[in-house]
Write a structure and sequence with these properties.
By secondary structure, the protein is of the alpha+beta class. It has a single domain, classed as Aminopeptidase, CATH 3.40.630.30. It has a seven-stranded mixed beta sheet. It is globular and about 50 Å long.
Amino acid sequence: MTIRRYRVGDEPEIWRIYFRATHESNASDYHKDLLNRWAPPDMKMTEWATRLREKNPFVALLDDQIVGFAELDGSGSLDYFYVSPDFQRQGMGSALMAAVVSEAVALELHAITADVSITAKSFFAAQGFEVVESRNNIILGHPAPNFAMVRHLKPPAASEEAI
């Protein structure tokens, strides 16, 4: 598996992962109306391409096939984090998270924050995130629970010269 940054031309594959993960992985936890709101079947690809250019996500590839992606901004907010349903529970998410954590450390961030679906909560917990707030949202008249989660990062070790 390889982790790299988004490249122009990746948009259709990344959209398929986002759409499928939203509609398939989250189907048992969220109402179809919500899934259609979050990943509409008629999404304008120009809007999607603009988002990807602005967010510059990490992209996970297996045999040159995109299998997941993750977005981390400069403040430590982890926005989209998705793995194709065909490749979940195979280490792809853990590899993506390792890239995100490495980037956060390089940016000298103290924590990574994320708004996490009930579907992904156990994965994030296994990656060292803690729930700081449980939210029982109602969206479009349907329950839409999610969780504010945080992973605290250890500060870089002080060099002996600094001591």
